[in-house]
């Protein structure tokens, strides 16, 4: 299956709806979409990834989510992972990255440390 992205934005937030497979060969589309949103509008405070129609996510897809987190954090925007299916939650929990992906980028380093791994 392929990946389909739909982008909606408001003055302070953007939502990328992800449908299909987030896997090898399709992750650049997501990274380009998020990079574009952040480059086009410096006032974006939150980027929402809506996984309602996600059908599959492999290790390359997981890597892309980590890269999206890095992009949003560097831009000072919060990353929201909305409507996560059970199979995505399982991957995020097993790999120990759920808390990292959803942490507030404005939080002080002393407030809470998140261990990945």
TrEMBL record:
* Pfam families assigned to the protein according to its UniProt record, in alphabetical order: STAS_2
Note the superkingdom of the native organism.
Bacteria
Q: Which InterPro entries match?
A: Anti-sigma_ant, MlaB-like_STAS, STAS_dom, STAS_dom_sf
| GO terms, molecular function | anti-sigma factor antagonist activity
Q: In what residue span(s) does the STAS domain sit?
A: 16-117
Family recorded in the similarity comment: Belongs to the anti-sigma-factor antagonist family.
The name on file for this protein is Anti-sigma factor antagonist
Species name for this entry?
A: Mycolicibacterium rutilum
